[in-house]
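Quick check before the chapter quiz. The format below is the same one you will see on the exam, so make sure you can read both the input and the output lines.
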Amino acid sequence: MVNQQTLSDAALVVLYLDIDGVLHHEHAVWNSRCGVHMCPKRAPGRRLFEWLPILETILQPFPLVKLVLSSSWCVWPGYGKTLKRFPPALRGRFVGGTFHKRIHRVDPPAFTNFQGKSRAEQILMDVQRRRPAFWLALDDDADGWPVEAIDNFVKCDGSTGLSSLSVQAELKFKLERCYVSQSSFRSDESIRRQTAAKEKS
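Here is the expected output.
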């Protein structure tokens, strides 16, 4: 069984979260001596996860929003190690990732298939599996997004990520819209349950 929470509440709002180009500059690199770090030539003065506090501030008014990791960091260094980089308030929002070690790592064809998908395809596959009522994706990779899902997508520039004021404004607007839709969903669901209970009595 995949080590992740299930979405027991069908009205849950899910934010699919990329890291490189979103929470820090896109030019994060790795070597055996330094591990993951910012490329000093392509991203001078930049720091890993430097825009993470912005995400935390934006999400504070939306306590029901859950996070799904949709990043190459989910493959390496891995979901668990990556979550340790997040503060507790955000770490507790995660319900899983688009890459599942116990599915893709143990099945080479499944891993190859996952790696061959665009970021949009990986997210949409997870949406079909997880089935959130409302969802958004915050990413700097715009390739492969179908027209019918483009309104769920918040595009970052890889060099400015979430530090962009226009990206922040768009994310806030779309989260607020999800919350309005969620309130309506909950109200309709409550009415349906009450009606069903009356019919049984």
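If your answer matched, good. Residues 3 and 177 are 30 Å apart (CA to CA).
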